Amino acid sequence: MTERTYSMSELVQLTGFDARTIRYYISQGLLPKPLKRGRGADYSEIHLDRLKLISVLKGNLKLDEIQARLNVASPEEIRQLLETWVEPKGKSSARNYLDSVQEDFEPSSMKMENLNIPTFVRRKKDIAGVSSLSQKDKFKEKFVAESLPLSSKEAGESYLPKSLKMDQSLRDESLLNPMNKLISKLDNSEHPNFESSYRRARTWKVIQITPGIELHLKDPDDLTLARMERAGELIRNILTGVDDD
Amino acid sequence: MTEKTLKISAQLERKLAWHRGQSVRHVVCELEAPKMVREENEQEARINLALVLDTSGSMHGEPLQTAKQTALAIAELLSEEDVLTVVTFDSFTEVVLQKVTMSDEGKDLARRQISGIQTRGMTNLSGGWFEGAKQLSEVMEEDQDYVHHLILLSDGRANEGLLDVDKLCEHVSEMRELGMSTSCVGFSDNYEMKWLEKMAEAGGGRLHDAEHPQEIAEVLMGELGEVRQTVLEDVRVVIQGAEGVRVDLLERYGTMSKHNGLEVILGSLISEAKRMLVFVVTLPSGEIGSKIPLVIHAEYKSAGGEQVRLTEEISLGIELARGADNDQQQRNLELARLIAEHWKTQILHHCMQLNRDRAYREATEYAQRQYYFLTRFCQGVAGTETILREIGFVAERVSNAINERSRKNIQLRMRKDSLNEMEHRSEKRDFSLMQELRFDLPPRINRRGSQPPATGG
């Protein structure tokens, strides 16, 4: 059976990358050379699969890091990962996406209450399928954790998804390889009281001073708030030179 | 089915650049959406619309009444093929009308539900957007064949829910990618323009301003008209150059960096809409006589369609030359004047933003620096005297607080001029920058003693 081939414009439509980017990826070795050169160049399923994978990973990894991982993955492995983990772009994508980010929109007071749930309860909830990891994140983790050999430095600093670094205790540890588990433990031991400082706070008031500078007040009463707003005004005047004379 | 294709053209203002590198050249790219033509059997695009209304305490009275009347008028205008959702937000969000098809019964229900809306509490803007988006996404799941659009109206600053605007815009942008656009309407003087502007940019929609209650009706109806007239969605322009080329954009569209290039997200375009983009290209050094290629194309979908279409690729070349040849080259003066206009809108918008953030010194320095560069650019270009005079005037004026309404009017006008968006407010079609600033406080003497730039003319 002959494999399906694709023209450049088909690749562009199927992957969302533009033609110049695809050519650039070929020149950089992220993709193999086309099957046929020249104007009517043909591309294979391998090109398509690799591009889909790059589109998923490029938000998290640099191109040379993606290249390093692609170089050791066989076409079958890439296909398998895509079939298992990439979200189908279909009718339910928008709804799935909103479900996966719902936590961001919950009222802050509710979020703080959630933090008071003992860790073991939350972990149990997570294991039961309430994990806030989106399908895409899971795919990235799986690709990162299972398919490729990593040095400890890479795994710890650049390869581990941010979400994994931030919230180790909440993740299903079966997703991690031994090296990542070790890093996970190390991360946790460095921040033993990670949540304790803001668990008690129920509301935070933010006073913006100038772009990039804010005052954050935990549970301020009216008097403190008024005083801090005044303090913010003074700082703003100093920074913007209103008081210079 | 009528073929709806996007026209694209691009020109260089100057074709030579200095061979030692760091020359800046401008590429003007023009786009024109096709005319909406319906064949006999072709149906109008169906709309899946969510109206997300701020019902915090400050909307009490006439503003809420007008918003309700406008929501009712919109419900009347929608056809029985369209779906309407109305969400209100204050401290809580409430789905007042949930995915109701606008048949006669649906309109009756809309009238009853919308009439009962009342004001209360704080401003959970992100919660309102999320609830509206969620309702739209449920219709999207059942039937993709709609134009999915969310209009958010707010008169205040978000003080509950998700308070990180960049984070919120990530979600708005992701939903745009998935087929749902977001437009925003700011009402009164107190709304947070930065939030609504960023959301409209991320959502591929438009930002409107309503100063008076009666303008709420004008802009909401205008926006609905634009949604009805949408012919192309998710329009993007991609420009790429050779190794070492850097590309920036003068207009306030959302952009994504590409390797040696830029992708500009224009969002939806209505029938016969025209857009002009000015790319600012910084060039690397190279051999004299060698050409640096730039390739531009656009990608888009037909309204309600899924398939991504591509325009032709436009190839331009900038030739590297000796200093003397570079200095003596011919310029396209008409293009230079257009570029200066767009440059001005960018400068004024940024100045107003800095002024709003009370960064007066930064605003003045920025305006003076840009005035210097723009003056050099405009040498020998007829019709740019007013532009320079206005920038000079603003450079003096921006060192003091400008009142909220004038600032918003200027920012909105600069935005609409720059993006070629429609002004739906009948009173605001005649705009004068000088007039906006004239009623404001007179400029204070510069405390630092530095001279504001002399006004051109």
Could you name the key traits of this structure?
heterodimer; A: 245 residues; mainly alpha; Multidrug-efflux Transporter Regulator, Chain: A, Domain 2; 3 domains; 14 helices; 57% helix; elongated; B: 457 residues; alpha/beta; Immunoglobulin-like; Rossmann fold; seven-stranded mixed sheet; six-stranded mixed sheet; 12 helices; 17 strands; globular; disordered C terminus
Describe this structure in words.
The complex is a heterodimer of chains A (245) and B (457). Chain A is mainly alpha-helical and 245 residues long. Helices cover 57% and strands 5% of the residues of chain A. Chain A contains 14 helices and 2 strands, in the order H-H-H-H-H-H-H-H-H-H-H-H-H-E-E-H. Chain A has helices at residues 8-15, 19-27, 45-57, 63-71, 75-85, 93-101, 108-115, 119-130, 135-146, 152-159, 162-166, 178-190, 196-199, 222-240; strands at residues 204-210, 213-218. Chain A has a two-stranded antiparallel ribbon. In chain A, helix 5 runs antiparallel to helix 9. The longest helix of chain A has 19 residues, at 222-240. Chain A is elongated. Chain B has 12 helices and 17 strands. With 457 residues, chain B is α/β, with parallel strands linked by helices. Chain B folds into 3 domains: 7-36 and 232-324, Immunoglobulin-like, CATH 2.60.40.740; 47-228, 3-Layer(aba) Sandwich (Rossmann fold); 333-438, no CATH class. In chain B, strand 15 and strand 16 form a beta hairpin. In chain B, strands 2, 10, 12, 13, 15, 16 and 17 form a 7-stranded mixed sheet that branches. Chain B has a 6-stranded mixed sheet with strand order 6-5-4-7-8-9, sandwiched between helices. Chain B has a 4-stranded antiparallel sheet with strand order 1-3-14-11, with helices on one face. In chain B, helix 1 (62-77) packs antiparallel against helix 2 (104-115), helix 8 runs parallel beside helix 10 and helix 8 (333-356) packs antiparallel against helix 11. The A-B interface holds A 9, 12-13, 16, 18-21, 24, 91-95, 97-98, 101-102, 104-105, 107-108, 206, 210-211, 236, 240-242, 244-245 and B 124, 126-127, 130, 133-134, 136-138, 140-142, 144, 148, 160-163, 167, 171, 174-175, 178-180, 238, 240, 258-259, 261, 263, 295, 297, 299, 307-308, 310, 313, 357-362, 447-448.
